[in-house]
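Entry for the shared binder. Reason: the reviewer on the internal report wants the predicted structure included alongside the sequence.
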Amino acid sequence: MKMVSNLPKFLLIVSCVAGFQLKAQQNVSISDVPNVPNVTSVLDVFSTTKGLLVPRMTTIQRNAIVTPANSLLVFDTDVNCFMYYTVSNTSWNSLCNSGPLSNGLNALSNTTTVAPGVNCANGGVLLQFGSDTNGNGILDLTEVTSTDYVCNGVTGLTGPAGATGPAGPAGATGLTGPAGLTGPTGPAGLAGPVGPAGAAGLTGPAGPAGATGLTGPAGLTGATGAAGLVGPAGPAGATGATGLTGPAGPAGATGATGLTGPAGPAGATGATGLTGAAGLAGPAGPAGATGAIGLAGPTGPAGATGLTGPAGPAGPAGNTGLTGPAGPAGATGPTGVAGATGATGATGLTGPAGPTGPAGNTGLTGPAGPAGATGPTGVAGATGATGAAGPTWTLTTPTVNPTGTLTINATAGSGAPVTTLGQYWIAAPNTVGTNALTATGFLGTSTNQHMDFVSNNIVRGRLSNVGEFFIGTTITALPGDLMNGVGNATFPWAVNGYTNFNAGATYGLRQAGSTGTWGSVQGETTAGIPANSSGVQGGAGANNHNGVLGQKPAGGAGWGGLFLNDLGYTGFFGVASDRRVKTDIKPIQSALKRIIQLDGKTYRYAAPYAQFLGGDAITYGFIAQEVEALFPEMVIEKSFTPGQTRAFDNKPIDINIKSVSTISLIPVLVEAMKEQQKMIEEMKAEIEYLKSKIKN
């Protein structure tokens, strides 16, 4: 195979463009008559006698194009129609049948390469046609109404090489015209066969040099033509003028940075030299990373107040430092002098009478006094008249009233029924017999005593004298608990919540006014329990449920879920990436150029932040400020402040720092690899070209 240089073709293009009107500053006009390009176009082609010829190829050749660009246009000689490519549905579309049909629907077509088989013995192309019934712009399988195959023919025998024709006479060299503005370099066409060298013509007078035009993008290298028969060697011609220097090849990729060698031993300190003259101030170096905030030193003694100097100019505002740990609470100051007693206020209204307290215990019976001396027997008196018979009555069954009062019942003559003034709680065998109160009822104590709940002669819980509720215990596990549930061997689950309705089984809510970094629902573990225990655990009973869900409004320094020190997972780790939820989709530009400017680093986290950021071991990663300079959207300042705990002391501190979305670098790396691969392919093609030049 023999490849030819693009230099003659480049010179031909330059000479031809001189005949056209160009406007490289904004847009370009190509015309065989004077023509001002339209201001809305980049390229304006105008003619009333000629047309625009796009690349022509067979269906097989068209489908062989690797990764066609969006809107790439060619003319398919097999179907005699213009075809354009769309990336959104990864298919070629015909301009001949994409208009609306009689039923108002757009006609669509698809082309698919077919491997050798039943339909095409030597392979070929499947053509599918139909109408866009669902209006999505894509020819779906259910919309195909007709199909056809364009099959490859059997490769014919190679014909004999034709004889080399006689060399044509060299044409006279024309006068060199004035150099026009260099237009943008068009795509390189296929290299034609090298013609015989013509005799060198007389050099015409040099025309005035035109302004250099913009260099256009290099065209694709054409396929190498078959090598012709070598003709007899002609007489050596005169040495031609030195050709123009070809364009420089693409710069090779920068090699990987070598490992840093070990530091040599420090040399002896030389004698201090004379102070040289002050040099010119160099440019300011990049600002170094802000160092960790040091511990606050002890406060020195207050110096004497100096004279107030003139106010200096205000310096630039410094970065806000991380909030230091809270200092120890100061000693309690002395009690102030008691204020004068205020005037006695007006007597308030008399409150309602409190409930009658329980009757006190009956006092002990005093000792019997000494028996008096027996007096003399008196004279028997006269027998009195018999009195009237007294009343006779009997107690009957008392009545427990629904309001909690008790009525004493008796037969006539007893003064019954008599009802108690106080109310009591009724221990009824069913719900019907319970208290039917007409006002708020109270159950508890009116003294500084606890109230215990008993069943089966065992204390099951307590309402303490300070308002704590205990279930399964009578003492608090940790101070500050309003409700305590303590499990035991029979009932190991201390607190359970269940629901069959539209709400959560348990609920926790922190409202405005609360302080600290406590969780609305908090779970912790302590030392001494089995390994792999969890402070908070969630499980899903079906594969369309979430084991644990955290959420928050978009933006801000907070997180939907925050894990400090190590995160493990198995299975699928997904990022929302559905095209249906995206907008403003654009390709990534200059990926390789920006990636090679990134520097990976090793580092350790500084105290006191290391205890919450993964420890002080060597870590591999990036510096957020360096990433931010190249990819600002990948860096956000977020909060890594730990929550407060009760079971152990984690000494929480505020940590608001820049964080990097390293997963967002993956698509940039993909595009950078594609750019690099393109460079490699171009270099390989150039190497093959140079090898062929050396060989021939």
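Summary line for the report: The CA atoms of residues 44 and 164 lie 42 Å apart.
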